[in-house]
Protein backbone atom coordinates (compact mmCIF):
# COMPACT_ATOMS: atom_id res chain seq x y z
CA UNK A 1 0.00 0.00 0.00
CA UNK A 2 1.04 3.62 0.36
CA UNK A 3 4.22 3.35 2.34
CA UNK A 4 5.38 0.37 0.33
CA UNK A 5 5.77 2.70 -2.60
CA UNK A 6 7.99 5.13 -0.73
CA UNK A 7 11.69 4.85 -0.12
CA UNK A 8 14.22 6.94 1.67
CA UNK A 9 17.63 7.75 0.38
CA UNK A 10 19.11 5.46 2.99
CA UNK A 11 20.44 2.23 1.57
CA UNK A 12 22.09 0.91 4.71
CA UNK A 13 21.88 -2.84 5.11
CA UNK A 14 19.49 -4.23 7.66
CA UNK A 15 20.80 -4.84 11.12
CA UNK A 16 19.70 -7.33 13.69
CA UNK A 17 19.59 -10.87 14.96
CA UNK A 18 20.19 -14.24 13.36
CA UNK A 19 18.24 -16.19 10.82
CA UNK A 20 14.66 -16.93 11.85
CA UNK A 21 12.61 -20.09 11.21
CA UNK A 22 11.10 -18.66 8.04
CA UNK A 23 14.33 -17.33 6.58
CA UNK A 24 14.19 -13.99 8.40
CA UNK A 25 17.06 -12.39 10.24
CA UNK A 26 15.47 -12.39 13.64
CA UNK A 27 12.86 -10.23 15.36
CA UNK A 28 15.37 -7.50 16.24
CA UNK A 29 16.43 -6.80 12.65
CA UNK A 30 15.86 -3.36 11.10
CA UNK A 31 14.86 -2.97 7.46
CA UNK A 32 14.40 -0.24 4.88
CA UNK A 33 11.45 -0.09 2.49
CA UNK A 34 13.89 -0.84 -0.32
CA UNK A 35 14.72 -4.18 1.21
CA UNK A 36 11.13 -5.05 2.10
CA UNK A 37 9.99 -4.34 -1.45
CA UNK A 38 12.38 -6.94 -2.84
CA UNK A 39 10.33 -9.68 -1.18
CA UNK A 40 7.19 -9.47 -3.30
CA UNK A 41 7.33 -12.74 -5.22
CA UNK A 42 5.21 -15.84 -4.86
CA UNK A 43 8.09 -17.79 -3.31
CA UNK A 44 9.38 -14.92 -1.16
CA UNK A 45 6.88 -12.64 0.58
CA UNK A 46 7.33 -10.06 3.31
CA UNK A 47 4.87 -7.44 4.47
CA UNK A 48 4.63 -4.71 7.08
CA UNK A 49 1.97 -4.29 9.78
CA UNK A 50 2.31 -1.46 12.32
CA UNK A 51 5.91 -0.99 11.16
CA UNK A 52 6.73 -4.62 12.06
CA UNK A 53 8.15 -6.75 9.24
CA UNK A 54 6.80 -10.28 8.77
CA UNK A 55 7.89 -13.13 6.52
CA UNK A 56 4.60 -14.65 5.31
CA UNK A 57 6.05 -16.90 2.59
CA UNK A 58 4.88 -20.15 4.18
CA UNK A 59 1.94 -18.74 6.16
CA UNK A 60 0.26 -17.33 3.03
CA UNK A 61 -0.72 -20.84 1.95
CA UNK A 62 -2.56 -21.35 5.25
CA UNK A 63 -4.14 -17.91 5.43
CA UNK A 64 -7.88 -18.39 6.23
CA UNK A 65 -8.81 -15.54 3.89
CA UNK A 66 -6.99 -17.17 0.99
CA UNK A 67 -3.46 -16.99 -0.36
CA UNK A 68 -4.23 -14.37 -2.97
CA UNK A 69 -5.56 -11.57 -0.81
CA UNK A 70 -2.60 -11.63 1.59
CA UNK A 71 -0.12 -12.04 -1.26
CA UNK A 72 -1.43 -8.85 -2.86
CA UNK A 73 0.37 -6.94 -0.09
CA UNK A 74 3.73 -8.68 -0.40
CA UNK A 75 6.47 -6.07 -0.22
CA UNK A 76 4.00 -3.45 1.03
CA UNK A 77 2.45 -1.99 4.16
CA UNK A 78 -0.68 -3.99 5.00
CA UNK A 79 -1.57 -2.23 8.25
CA UNK A 80 -4.89 -0.69 7.21
CA UNK A 81 -5.98 -3.79 5.31
CA UNK A 82 -5.08 -5.97 8.30
CA UNK A 83 -7.22 -3.86 10.63
CA UNK A 84 -10.05 -3.51 8.10
CA UNK A 85 -10.48 -7.24 7.43
CA UNK A 86 -10.03 -8.65 10.93
CA UNK A 87 -12.80 -7.93 13.46
CA UNK A 88 -10.39 -8.79 16.30
CA UNK A 89 -6.86 -7.78 15.19
CA UNK A 90 -5.40 -8.42 18.65
CA UNK A 91 -6.43 -12.07 18.45
CA UNK A 92 -4.92 -12.45 14.98
CA UNK A 93 -1.65 -10.87 16.09
CA UNK A 94 -0.98 -13.99 18.16
CA UNK A 95 -0.51 -15.90 14.91
CA UNK A 96 1.86 -13.24 13.60
CA UNK A 97 4.45 -13.59 16.35
CA UNK A 98 6.29 -16.60 14.80
CA UNK A 99 6.45 -14.70 11.49
CA UNK A 100 8.07 -11.55 12.91
CA UNK A 101 11.54 -10.92 11.50
CA UNK A 102 12.14 -7.28 12.42
CA UNK A 103 10.83 -3.78 12.02
CA UNK A 104 11.18 -0.73 9.80
CA UNK A 105 14.06 1.63 10.45
CA UNK A 106 12.98 4.77 12.36
CA UNK A 107 13.90 6.90 9.33
CA UNK A 108 11.48 5.02 7.05
CA UNK A 109 8.11 6.71 6.28
CA UNK A 110 4.79 5.30 7.42
CA UNK A 111 2.24 4.09 4.91
CA UNK A 112 -0.51 6.66 5.49
CA UNK A 113 1.19 9.74 3.99
CA UNK A 114 0.36 11.62 7.20
CA UNK A 115 -3.35 10.71 7.12
CA UNK A 116 -3.41 9.60 10.74
CA UNK A 117 -6.91 11.07 10.92
CA UNK A 118 -8.28 7.94 9.26
CA UNK A 119 -7.00 5.79 12.11
CA UNK A 120 -8.58 8.24 14.53
CA UNK A 121 -11.85 7.92 12.61
CA UNK A 122 -11.68 4.15 12.78
CA UNK A 123 -11.05 4.31 16.52
CA UNK A 124 -14.12 6.52 16.87
CA UNK A 125 -16.18 4.13 14.75
CA UNK A 126 -15.19 1.22 16.97
CA UNK A 127 -15.80 3.19 20.16
CA UNK A 128 -19.31 4.17 19.04
CA UNK A 129 -20.12 0.54 18.19
CA UNK A 130 -20.66 1.13 14.48
CA UNK A 131 -18.90 -2.13 13.62
CA UNK A 132 -21.42 -4.14 15.63
CA UNK A 133 -24.41 -5.63 13.83
CA UNK A 134 -27.99 -5.25 15.03
CA UNK A 135 -29.56 -8.73 15.00
CA UNK A 136 -33.05 -7.23 14.62
CA UNK A 137 -32.10 -5.53 11.34
CA UNK A 138 -30.80 -8.71 9.75
CA UNK A 139 -33.68 -10.76 11.16
CA UNK A 140 -36.11 -8.40 9.49
CA UNK A 141 -34.06 -8.45 6.29
CA UNK A 142 -34.09 -12.25 6.25
CA UNK A 143 -37.81 -12.14 7.03
CA UNK A 144 -38.53 -9.94 4.03
CA UNK A 145 -36.62 -12.40 1.78
CA UNK A 146 -38.59 -15.36 3.14
CA UNK A 147 -41.81 -13.36 2.74
CA UNK A 148 -41.06 -12.61 -0.92
CA UNK A 149 -40.38 -16.28 -1.63
CA UNK A 150 -43.58 -17.27 0.17
CA UNK A 151 -45.59 -14.67 -1.77
CA UNK A 152 -44.14 -15.89 -5.06
CA UNK A 153 -45.11 -19.46 -4.27
CA UNK A 154 -48.51 -18.35 -2.98
CA UNK A 155 -49.30 -16.45 -6.18
CA UNK A 156 -48.76 -19.57 -8.25
CA UNK A 157 -50.68 -21.74 -5.78
CA UNK A 158 -53.77 -19.51 -5.74
CA UNK A 159 -53.93 -17.93 -9.20
CA UNK A 160 -51.99 -20.31 -11.42
CA UNK A 161 -49.07 -20.03 -13.82
CA UNK A 162 -50.09 -17.39 -16.32
CA UNK A 163 -47.32 -15.46 -18.06
CA UNK A 164 -47.96 -12.31 -16.04
CA UNK A 165 -47.95 -14.14 -12.70
CA UNK A 166 -44.85 -16.12 -13.64
CA UNK A 167 -43.08 -12.86 -14.49
CA UNK A 168 -44.14 -11.32 -11.16
CA UNK A 169 -43.02 -14.47 -9.35
CA UNK A 170 -39.63 -14.29 -11.10
CA UNK A 171 -39.14 -10.65 -10.09
CA UNK A 172 -39.81 -11.54 -6.46
CA UNK A 173 -37.45 -14.50 -6.53
CA UNK A 174 -34.71 -12.44 -8.18
CA UNK A 175 -34.43 -10.35 -5.01
CA UNK A 176 -33.85 -13.37 -2.77
CA UNK A 177 -31.19 -15.46 -4.48
CA UNK A 178 -27.56 -15.96 -3.47
CA UNK A 179 -24.27 -17.74 -4.18
CA UNK A 180 -21.57 -19.77 -2.49
CA UNK A 181 -20.43 -17.77 0.56
CA UNK A 182 -16.97 -19.36 0.51
CA UNK A 183 -16.40 -18.55 -3.18
CA UNK A 184 -17.84 -15.05 -2.83
CA UNK A 185 -15.79 -14.18 0.24
CA UNK A 186 -12.48 -15.22 -1.30
CA UNK A 187 -13.29 -13.33 -4.48
CA UNK A 188 -14.69 -10.29 -2.71
CA UNK A 189 -11.81 -10.02 -0.22
CA UNK A 190 -9.46 -9.50 -3.16
CA UNK A 191 -11.72 -6.84 -4.62
CA UNK A 192 -11.85 -4.93 -1.35
CA UNK A 193 -8.11 -5.29 -0.77
CA UNK A 194 -7.11 -3.89 -4.17
CA UNK A 195 -10.16 -2.38 -5.90
CA UNK A 196 -9.78 -1.65 -9.61
CA UNK A 197 -6.17 -2.86 -9.65
CA UNK A 198 -5.34 -5.07 -12.62
CA UNK A 199 -4.10 -8.59 -11.78
CA UNK A 200 -5.26 -8.19 -8.16
CA UNK A 201 -8.96 -7.29 -8.32
CA UNK A 202 -10.88 -10.15 -9.98
CA UNK A 203 -13.73 -7.75 -10.78
CA UNK A 204 -11.61 -6.00 -13.44
CA UNK A 205 -10.39 -9.26 -14.96
CA UNK A 206 -12.61 -9.14 -18.03
CA UNK A 207 -10.95 -12.12 -19.79
CA UNK A 208 -10.19 -9.94 -22.85
CA UNK A 209 -13.92 -9.35 -23.39
CA UNK A 210 -13.66 -5.68 -22.38
CA UNK A 211 -10.87 -3.14 -22.02
CA UNK A 212 -11.25 -0.96 -18.93
CA UNK A 213 -9.96 2.36 -17.67
CA UNK A 214 -7.62 4.68 -19.55
CA UNK A 215 -4.40 2.64 -19.65
CA UNK A 216 -5.43 -0.92 -20.54
CA UNK A 217 -7.13 0.14 -23.83
CA UNK A 218 -3.99 1.95 -24.97
CA UNK A 219 -1.79 -1.01 -24.00
CA UNK A 220 -3.99 -3.37 -25.99
CA UNK A 221 -4.09 -0.98 -28.92
CA UNK A 222 -0.33 -0.51 -29.09
CA UNK A 223 0.15 -4.30 -28.98
CA UNK A 224 -2.50 -4.66 -31.73
CA UNK A 225 -4.62 -6.94 -29.53
CA UNK A 226 -8.15 -7.33 -30.85
CA UNK A 227 -9.92 -10.18 -29.09
CA UNK A 228 -13.18 -8.25 -29.49
CA UNK A 229 -14.29 -5.13 -31.40
CA UNK A 230 -13.63 -3.00 -28.33
CA UNK A 231 -14.82 0.22 -29.95
CA UNK A 232 -18.30 -1.36 -29.79
CA UNK A 233 -18.01 -2.70 -26.23
CA UNK A 234 -20.47 -0.14 -24.88
CA UNK A 235 -23.02 -1.80 -27.17
CA UNK A 236 -22.27 -5.51 -26.78
CA UNK A 237 -22.01 -4.97 -23.01
CA UNK A 238 -25.82 -5.12 -22.92
CA UNK A 239 -25.74 -8.55 -24.58
CA UNK A 240 -23.02 -10.34 -22.62
CA UNK A 241 -22.59 -8.26 -19.45
CA UNK A 242 -25.75 -7.99 -17.36
CA UNK A 243 -27.50 -11.02 -18.89
CA UNK A 244 -24.71 -13.59 -18.51
CA UNK A 245 -22.50 -12.77 -15.52
CA UNK A 246 -24.48 -14.76 -12.92
CA UNK A 247 -26.28 -17.41 -15.04
CA UNK A 248 -23.12 -18.39 -16.95
CA UNK A 249 -19.80 -16.99 -15.71
CA UNK A 250 -20.39 -17.03 -11.95
CA UNK A 251 -22.26 -20.35 -11.99
CA UNK A 252 -19.43 -22.09 -13.85
CA UNK A 253 -16.82 -20.47 -11.63
CA UNK A 254 -18.66 -21.41 -8.42
CA UNK A 255 -18.92 -25.11 -9.26
CA UNK A 256 -15.41 -25.17 -10.69
CA UNK A 257 -14.11 -23.75 -7.39
CA UNK A 258 -16.11 -26.23 -5.32
CA UNK A 259 -14.71 -29.24 -7.18
CA UNK A 260 -11.14 -27.95 -7.57
CA UNK A 261 -10.91 -27.12 -3.85
CA UNK A 262 -12.93 -30.19 -2.87
CA UNK A 263 -15.26 -28.03 -0.85
CA UNK A 264 -17.93 -30.67 -0.42
CA UNK A 265 -19.75 -28.81 2.37
CA UNK A 266 -20.25 -25.82 0.08
CA UNK A 267 -21.39 -28.15 -2.68
CA UNK A 268 -23.88 -29.83 -0.35
CA UNK A 269 -25.38 -26.45 0.62
CA UNK A 270 -25.67 -25.50 -3.06
CA UNK A 271 -27.44 -28.76 -3.80
CA UNK A 272 -29.95 -28.17 -1.01
CA UNK A 273 -30.77 -24.79 -2.58
CA UNK A 274 -31.50 -26.33 -5.98
CA UNK A 275 -33.36 -29.26 -4.39
CA UNK A 276 -35.61 -26.88 -2.45
CA UNK A 277 -36.26 -24.82 -5.56
CA UNK A 278 -37.27 -27.82 -7.66
CA UNK A 279 -39.41 -29.28 -4.87
CA UNK A 280 -41.33 -26.01 -4.70
CA UNK A 281 -41.79 -25.33 -8.41
CA UNK A 282 -41.78 -28.75 -10.07
CA UNK A 283 -45.52 -29.24 -9.32
CA UNK A 284 -46.30 -26.03 -11.24
CA UNK A 285 -43.85 -26.11 -14.16
CA UNK A 286 -42.42 -29.62 -14.40
CA UNK A 287 -38.70 -30.32 -14.67
CA UNK A 288 -37.82 -28.35 -17.79
CA UNK A 289 -40.16 -25.53 -16.80
CA UNK A 290 -38.43 -25.28 -13.42
CA UNK A 291 -35.03 -25.17 -15.13
CA UNK A 292 -36.34 -22.38 -17.37
CA UNK A 293 -37.73 -20.53 -14.35
CA UNK A 294 -34.52 -20.57 -12.32
CA UNK A 295 -32.54 -19.59 -15.41
CA UNK A 296 -34.82 -16.61 -15.96
CA UNK A 297 -34.61 -15.66 -12.27
CA UNK A 298 -30.82 -15.75 -12.46
CA UNK A 299 -31.01 -13.69 -15.66
CA UNK A 300 -32.99 -10.98 -13.84
CA UNK A 301 -30.76 -11.17 -10.77
CA UNK A 302 -27.69 -10.80 -12.97
CA UNK A 303 -28.96 -7.50 -14.40
CA UNK A 304 -29.48 -6.13 -10.90
CA UNK A 305 -26.09 -7.36 -9.71
CA UNK A 306 -24.04 -5.98 -12.60
CA UNK A 307 -25.59 -2.52 -12.56
CA UNK A 308 -25.52 -2.16 -8.76
CA UNK A 309 -21.90 -3.28 -8.43
CA UNK A 310 -20.41 -1.67 -11.53
CA UNK A 311 -21.99 1.78 -11.24
CA UNK A 312 -19.80 2.36 -8.17
CA UNK A 313 -16.55 1.15 -9.75
CA UNK A 314 -16.42 0.94 -13.54
CA UNK A 315 -16.41 4.71 -14.19
CA UNK A 316 -13.69 5.23 -11.56
CA UNK A 317 -9.91 4.92 -11.90
CA UNK A 318 -8.77 1.48 -13.08
CA UNK A 319 -5.02 0.99 -13.23
CA UNK A 320 -2.06 -1.21 -12.41
CA UNK A 321 -0.67 -1.30 -8.88
CA UNK A 322 0.27 2.20 -7.70
CA UNK A 323 0.96 1.43 -4.03
CA UNK A 324 -1.46 4.02 -2.68
CA UNK A 325 -2.43 4.33 0.96
CA UNK A 326 -5.71 2.70 2.01
CA UNK A 327 -7.81 5.88 2.08
CA UNK A 328 -6.60 7.20 -1.28
CA UNK A 329 -6.85 3.82 -3.00
CA UNK A 330 -10.43 3.17 -1.91
CA UNK A 331 -11.63 6.68 -2.78
CA UNK A 332 -10.08 6.61 -6.25
CA UNK A 333 -11.86 3.34 -7.04
CA UNK A 334 -15.31 3.95 -5.54
CA UNK A 335 -18.17 6.44 -5.52
CA UNK A 336 -21.50 6.70 -3.74
CA UNK A 337 -25.06 6.90 -5.02
CA UNK A 338 -27.46 9.38 -3.45
CA UNK A 339 -29.26 8.13 -0.38
CA UNK A 340 -32.98 7.48 -0.58
CA UNK A 341 -35.31 4.80 0.72
CA UNK A 342 -35.46 3.21 -2.73
CA UNK A 343 -31.72 3.44 -3.39
CA UNK A 344 -30.94 1.93 0.03
CA UNK A 345 -33.28 -1.01 -0.62
CA UNK A 346 -32.51 -1.45 -4.32
CA UNK A 347 -28.74 -1.54 -3.79
CA UNK A 348 -28.75 -3.28 -0.42
CA UNK A 349 -27.08 -0.15 1.01
CA UNK A 350 -24.25 -0.50 -1.50
CA UNK A 351 -25.04 3.05 -2.56
CA UNK A 352 -22.67 3.82 0.35
CA UNK A 353 -19.85 2.13 -1.54
CA UNK A 354 -17.11 4.39 -0.14
CA UNK A 355 -17.98 3.53 3.46
CA UNK A 356 -18.44 -0.12 2.47
CA UNK A 357 -14.87 -0.20 1.17
CA UNK A 358 -13.21 1.78 3.93
CA UNK A 359 -14.89 -0.37 6.60
CA UNK A 360 -15.59 -3.76 4.96
CA UNK A 361 -16.72 -5.39 8.22
CA UNK A 362 -19.20 -2.63 9.06
CA UNK A 363 -22.88 -3.71 9.02
CA UNK A 364 -24.76 -2.04 6.19
CA UNK A 365 -27.26 -0.35 8.48
CA UNK A 366 -24.51 1.89 9.88
CA UNK A 367 -23.11 3.28 6.62
CA UNK A 368 -25.28 6.38 6.69
CA UNK A 369 -24.03 7.21 10.19
CA UNK A 370 -20.34 7.20 9.27
CA UNK A 371 -20.76 8.82 5.83
CA UNK A 372 -20.71 12.45 7.08
CA UNK A 373 -17.52 11.73 9.04
CA UNK A 374 -15.83 10.22 5.98
CA UNK A 375 -16.89 13.16 3.82
CA UNK A 376 -15.41 15.62 6.35
CA UNK A 377 -12.14 13.66 6.41
CA UNK A 378 -11.96 13.77 2.61
CA UNK A 379 -12.53 17.53 2.57
CA UNK A 380 -9.75 18.00 5.11
CA UNK A 381 -7.23 16.13 2.98
CA UNK A 382 -8.48 17.34 -0.41
CA UNK A 383 -9.62 13.89 -1.51
CA UNK A 384 -12.59 13.38 -3.85
CA UNK A 385 -15.80 12.10 -2.27
CA UNK A 386 -18.03 11.44 -5.27
CA UNK A 387 -21.80 11.14 -4.94
CA UNK A 388 -23.99 10.58 -8.01
CA UNK A 389 -27.64 10.15 -8.80
CA UNK A 390 -28.71 6.61 -9.68
CA UNK A 391 -29.43 7.67 -13.26
CA UNK A 392 -26.06 9.33 -13.77
CA UNK A 393 -24.22 6.38 -12.25
CA UNK A 394 -25.85 3.97 -14.71
CA UNK A 395 -25.17 6.28 -17.67
CA UNK A 396 -21.54 6.63 -16.57
CA UNK A 397 -21.05 2.85 -16.83
CA UNK A 398 -21.88 2.94 -20.53
CA UNK A 399 -19.94 6.18 -21.03
CA UNK A 400 -16.80 4.75 -19.45
CA UNK A 401 -16.96 1.67 -21.69
CA UNK A 402 -17.32 3.88 -24.77
CA UNK A 403 -14.40 6.07 -23.70
CA UNK A 404 -12.17 3.04 -23.15
CA UNK A 405 -13.20 1.58 -26.49
CA UNK A 406 -12.38 4.83 -28.28
CA UNK A 407 -8.96 4.93 -26.60
CA UNK A 408 -8.28 1.41 -27.80
CA UNK A 409 -9.33 2.18 -31.37
CA UNK A 410 -7.13 5.28 -31.52
CA UNK A 411 -4.10 3.38 -30.20
CA UNK A 412 -4.82 0.39 -32.46
CA UNK A 413 -4.95 2.50 -35.60
CA UNK A 414 -2.39 5.22 -34.92
CA UNK A 415 0.22 4.01 -32.41
TrEMBL record:
Keywords: Fatty acid biosynthesis, Fatty acid metabolism, Lipid biosynthesis, Lipid metabolism, Membrane, Oxidoreductase, Transmembrane, Transmembrane helix
Main location: membrane
Listed Pfam families: Cyt-b5 (PF00173), FA_desaturase (PF00487)
Protein's cellular compartments: Membrane
Composition-biased stretches (Gly residues): 15-27
Keyword Lipid metabolism found: yes
Name used for this protein in its record: Cytochrome b5 heme-binding domain-containing protein
Gene name for this UniProt entry: LOC112264870
Amino acid sequence: MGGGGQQTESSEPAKGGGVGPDGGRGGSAVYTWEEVQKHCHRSDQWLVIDRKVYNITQWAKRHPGGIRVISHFAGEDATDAFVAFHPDPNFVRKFLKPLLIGELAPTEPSQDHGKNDFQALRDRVEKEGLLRARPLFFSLYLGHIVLLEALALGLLWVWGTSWSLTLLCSLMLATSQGASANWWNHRHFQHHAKPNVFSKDPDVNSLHVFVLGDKQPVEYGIKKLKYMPYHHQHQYFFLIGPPLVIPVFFTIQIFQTMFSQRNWVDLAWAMTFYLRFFCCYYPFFGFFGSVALISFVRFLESHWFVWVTQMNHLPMEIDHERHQDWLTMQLSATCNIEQSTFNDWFSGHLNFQIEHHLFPTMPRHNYHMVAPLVRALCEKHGLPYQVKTLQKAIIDVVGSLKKSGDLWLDAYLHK
